[in-house]
Amino acid sequence: MPGITYEDFLDLEYDPADSDLVCAFRVEPAADMSMEAAASRVASESSNGTWAELQVEGSVTDLSATAFAIDGDEIRVAYPEELFEPGSMAQVLSCIAGNIMGMKAVERIRLLDCEWPEPLATSFPGPGFGTSVRTEIFDAPNRPITATVPKPKVGLSTEQHAGVGYDAWVGGIDLLKDDENLTDQSFNPFHDRLTESLDARDRAEEETGERKSYLVNVTADANTMLERADAVAAAGGEYVMVDVITTGWAAVQTVRERCAELGLAIHAHRAMHAAFDRVPSHGVSMRVLAQIARLCGADQLHTGTADLGKLENEDTVGINEWLYADLYGLNDVLPTASGGLHPGLVPELIERCGTNICVQAGGGVHGHPDGTAAGAKALRQSIDATVEGIPLEEYAEDYPELAVAIEKWGTE
Ligand SMILES: O=C(O)[C@@](O)(COP(=O)(O)O)[C@H](O)[C@H](O)COP(=O)(O)O
Ligand SMILES: [Mg+2]
Q1: Which residues carry this modification: N6-carboxylysine (predicted)?
Q2: Residue 37: which region, alpha, beta or left (left: phi > 0; alpha: psi -120 to 50)?
């Protein structure tokens, strides 16, 4: 009896079942390989096949993926539901972004997009809040929420950190955010930073009458992140910040479960994402990383500045649309635009991305010639002006902080 071979994983007549996970890949076959041959190997090695002919019994082939479409350098592969462990992103990725990334049968391969079927998608919790943070945590139904990262990224003492937070909050910023490499170092220990920053937050709320919050970075091993999440809830915080790529999705899922119990929202930073998504011919696209972040429970996610800032971005607007779109009733995600932003860029950012976003500016606030408080005011003024439809230069006639920012950084 003939066994199963790579060729059994290619069927261009196959019509995916509703419960199949469908993945799109960009594939550059190896020099001596046709696209059909490469496609069959992608489907095989990412499901239950291998290079040797296999004698198999019974329904084993029911778990086999099928490469069912080839369009130029793109292929589409359908994965049967039974292949996956419901609710385990690590297991799903071990299939669709596992060994195939290193196969000699392809020169390059990139996981571009996924169509998540309802059974698999709803086996994940999704976000606890999503864009509803704007009204559940803040009073910002009609404007972007704002955030600032104290700069320099690390090195401030706890007292200095809380002081910068206070100035920024009183200046009109909604969220203080830790930088990605600030966790629990001796110059600014986690627990001290948490309590002193939230004390400053409380004073700023009293002073401004506005609700404020803090994206405290809990990133560490899973057990430590749980301890830190408990501390955040006990101290009266509303958010934890997790670097979702460096910690890994399994740890994110563990933190999501704890945050559900504690009623905390998750801000997802994405340091190291570019190692996966920057080279267009290879890796895992930011679109797919964003999909994974939503399924695993990120309420806010960095998705870029629509090419306005200092960092390379992949399709910010398209990714944001997917994060807003209905997904079997799972909550949406609030996109965070960050990286090289300053008040002068806000009108164009909102033109491209709308107001249902979080705008983060670190250097664009703390680099203001008149300091953090003035920088915070300038950012808030640019948001208010843009939401009211008033040109920045005109608004700046009455708001000197904004005028100074525009003079310093311009509006492009
Ligand atoms: O360290 C930084 O560079 C930032 O704090 C921005 O600082 P500035 O506001 O001073 O630029 C953020 O980590 C990046 O925006 C992350 O990139 P992305 O949002 O693309 O994931
Ligand atoms: Mg940073």
Answers
A1: 177
A2: alpha
